[in-house]
Amino acid sequence: MKAIPIRHITTSHQQQSYTGRFSIRDIQSVLNGADLVHDLHKHDFYFFLALEKGQGFHEIDFVRYAIAQHALFILRPGQVHQLQLTADASGYLVEFDPSFYQPKSSFTEQKWKKVTNKNVCEVDENRFKKLFFFLSAIFNEFTAQEDGYMEAIKATLDLFVIELARQSQHPARISAGVNTYTQERYEELLRLLETNITQIKRVSQYAALLNLSVFQLNAITRATVGKTTADLITEQITLEAKRYLLATPNQIKDIAWHLGYEDPSYFIRFFKKHTGYSPDAFRKNFKEVPSN
């Protein structure tokens, strides 16, 4: 069973190992005068891509976004993506381990959960300039490496997260009028699904992890996105299957086993019911994504 290809943080700052790795690069230095083409892969770290300008596409967990000015993309560890970016793009690429940045206040932690629940944030030019100002300050600290630069970076990340959360007050998939408690529990469920879906598939198990009843958990998911918890479990299983079908050469039976299905035929029926394709047909039809 082959794992999905994982790319690692590019940094020469070896002394960071005990506090987690961190890197920020100017997009122009990454491109080096050539178009960028990254095939499907995933990371075990957070990945922020802030673009002043550029063209191309960014596909995150099989949702394709056109590259636009003043766009910021956020990937959580474990998500798969592919990226095509033209050589004239400008901006910053930020990468860091989950252990590197951990908000110290409950307020900032709540904002952090909010912003990392979205994959893309497009804002107007003036608001983007404020976000970009914080990233430029982080870049300068990382480049100069003066005394206390890592603490300065983490403090500036706090400011960046708070400002980004202001641009993410009402994510499109969250229903209007949902209170903070309900939204926070919903976001907590999503994180549990991402990390446990291959072992845990019952609504009652997730309810127990959240110290909720099944009725309470379903009320939360219906209020936020109009779906049952079972619907979200099905979506996460399907997403994980898609990741392995397109990013690895593994046989269908091995992917079924990875997802916790001892009977490959049951997995094939499940996948076709929820996608309209057999696993093999999905892999053949979507393996090659045409360039823009």
Automatic annotation (TrEMBL):
PROSITE patterns attached here? HTH_ARAC_FAMILY_2 (PS01124)
Q: What PANTHER family does the record tag this protein with?
A: ARAC-FAMILY TRANSCRIPTIONAL REGULATOR, TRANSCRIPTIONAL REGULATORY PROTEIN
Q: Which UniProt keywords apply?
A: DNA-binding, Transcription, Transcription regulation
Name of the featured protein: Helix-turn-helix domain-containing protein
Boundaries of every HTH araC/xylS-type domain copy? 187-285
Which GO molecular-function terms appear in the entry? Answer: DNA-binding transcription factor activity; sequence-specific DNA binding
